[in-house]
Design brief:
Strand content: 5-15%
Largest sheet: 2 strands, parallel
Shape: elongated
Structural class: mainly alpha
Length: about 70
């Protein structure tokens, strides 16, 4: 039974399954020019920041505060 004065609420959209492609935004204008990662560790960190912030590409000298 519905409570008096209650409004129906739609179910939220399901979260994307793990491994699903996410949309990334283009890299914003930053103070430093883009420099690609050069080591395996930099590649891992760049991908991590890209996935977390939804920005692509992430360079080796980018400031994550400026990225978003």
């Amino acid at each position: 039974a519905e409570a008096e004065g209650a409004a129906p609420v739609e179910a939220p959209e399901a979260a994307a399954p793990p491994g699903a492609a996410r949309r990334h935004h283009p890299r914003p204008e930053l103070r430093v020019p883009y420099a690609p990662p050069t080591t395996a560790r930099e590649e891992i960190l760049a991908r991590l920041w890209s996935d977390l912030l939804g920005v692509e590409p992430v360079g080796r000298h980018d400031n994550f505060f400026e990225l978003g």
